[in-house]
From TrEMBL, chains A, B:
This is prephenate dehydrogenase. Its EC number is 1.3.1.12. It catalyses: prephenate + NAD(+) = 3-(4-hydroxyphenyl)pyruvate + CO2 + NADH. SUPFAM superfamilies: 6-phosphogluconate dehydrogenase C-terminal domain-like, NAD(P)-binding Rossmann-fold domains. The keyword NAD applies. NCBIfam families: PRK07502.1 (NF005694). GO terms for biological process: tyrosine biosynthetic process.
């Protein structure tokens, strides 16, 4: 008797695919049913052993499932939830893995037979790759996972989802959807926006200059290109769905950047040195919080900050 | 008979220290003399085996040296060159490892007995750590090194410095100082400026928010903190010394960022999606140019782009 007899994975890319492998390995799931629109994706998910069955219809996918995981691009989760309705049991726990929470709560809940069984979640883990081939067991190991239940959410359902992520070796935190969206705006959304932008700035350089940028990317540009290779659909949805928090943080960043621009233009070395010294201390804070680790750069990688 | 009988390392931190270890291991240097102002640095360099002798006086350090490597913060290289003068032989090759080249050429050459023996260089390698303890053999392996000789530079001297870096397993390119400074402004200087700025924006958040940023840094912020932990003195000098090229690239970036801000404010998904798709292609260009490599994120690190 597994914790979940039948799990429906709505979407089977990097996150849901990796979760499927993790649930299987941890013995948490009986049958895993993947739901994907594309026949190619379904075939590949089966080949890769991400699921036992793969179907096209959301309603068929969720039939008899006691756990449903929404893992499609955030913008279509509401629509998928609506399409699941005919097959969905009121006892089933529904969760999601989107990087934004406020909008998902608003989009998904109206379509569920039992809103209290919806446990909004966000595993803070990923790579720049997407699709079923990007999935791997262990993606969530030593990562954080944020659950954002609302007032009516069933505490027992929250507990079961928490236990699932803890089995995946994630450390689980609980906060409100609004708080989640503010925190992620600065830790994740703004960094992605900036990386996308600078890589775009380079993309607009003349061909010859561009070739050289690739050649000398180890000078610091490499990390930005990795971040800016993340899934375009998902990130478009994230920025548009978390607009207010992203614009607020972006505004603060731009004010600071203009201050730097001014200091450089007027050759003011002291404010630059003072800032660079403060930011060095922040790195220590991050390392102590266990979100980074100190290492010598590996061959082929530079650490992103060559001199 | 080694290629260099006596090497004077002017400054013995991450770069010069790592070069010293590399020269020793490759059997390229006889005696290595380190020059550092601080008694603590000199003692530590000796303890770590980065040099055979450590002295305070630049003139004493370069006596009898057939190779002199300037590895101090860029802004003081001219001053160090002037102080070396009494001890420096006209046959000695002088090179440097600064991340900027135009200014170094202007600052150093007037103080040399034989300007044609100066080979300006920039190993594009490093980590966020600095000082003698950060040095390690192999830092330059599979990295690029840029040499920027000027018209009068002695071709034989350039050849010997090229051979030295190739022994360190770096791939060597030659270009003008001006061209180097333009290319590095976008591949290295602007990315560092942006990373310093966003980490500073976070540093200004209220305490409680800051703690959470550390906790969820894996969402993309981690890479920025690593870049923004780089040596403050060196980077202040870089931005002030390469001002024009940095301001030009920063201007382009800010225009693009304002475009993103506008697209988000007005919920224009298409330009965002189109940009994010183009930037994904750039990543492939960088990987093909061999400056990055595809990997699953290691435990404790996230790859900087968790969802």
């Amino acid at each position: 008797m597994k914790p979940f007899e039948r799990v429906a994975m709505m979407g089977i890319g990097l996150i849901n695919g990796s979760l499927a492998l993790t649930l299987k390995k941890a013995g948490l799931a009986g049958e895993i049913v993947a739901c994907a629109r594309g026949a190619g994706t379904r075939a590949r998910a089966l080949e890769l052993g991400l699921c036992d069955r793969a179907v096209e219809s959301p309603a068929e996918a969720v039939e008899g499932a006691d756990l449903v995981v929404l893992g499609t691009p955030p913008a279509v989760m509401g629509e998928i939830a609506a399409a699941m309705r005919p097959g969905l049991s009121g006892e089933a726990i529904v969760t999601d893995v989107a990087s934004i929470k406020g909008r998902i709560v608003n989009d998904v809940i109206p379509h569920l037979p039992e809103p209290r069984m919806f446990v909004p979640g966000h595993p803070v883990a990923g790579t720049e790759h997407s699709g079923p081939d990007a999935a791997f067991e262990g993606l969530f190991r030593r990562r954080r996972c944020i659950l954002t239940p609302i007032e009516d959410t069933d505490p027992a359902a929250v507990q079961r989802i928490r236990a699932m992520w803890e089995k995946a070796e994630s450390s689980v935190d609980v906060m409100t959807p609004e708080h989640h969206d503010r925190v992620l705006a600065i830790t994740s959304h703004l960094p992605h926006l900036i990386a996308y932008t600078i890589v775009g700035t380079v993309a607009d350089l003349e061909e010859e200059a561009k070739t050289e940028v690739f050649k000398y990317a180890a000078g610091g540009f490499t990390d930005f290109t990795r971040i800016a290779a993340s899934d375009p659909t998902m990130w478009r949805d994230v920025f548009l769905s978390n607009r207010e928090a992203v614009l607020e943080m972006l505004g603060r960043f731009m004010e600071d950047l203009i201050g730097m621009q001014r200091a450089i233009r007027w050759s003011q070395g002291d404010p630059l040195f003072e800032l660079f010294t403060r930011t060095r201390a922040i790195r220590r804070g991050v390392i102590e919080a266990g979100q980074a680790y100190v290492r010598k750069p590996a061959d082929g990688e530079n650490g992103g900050n060559a001199d």
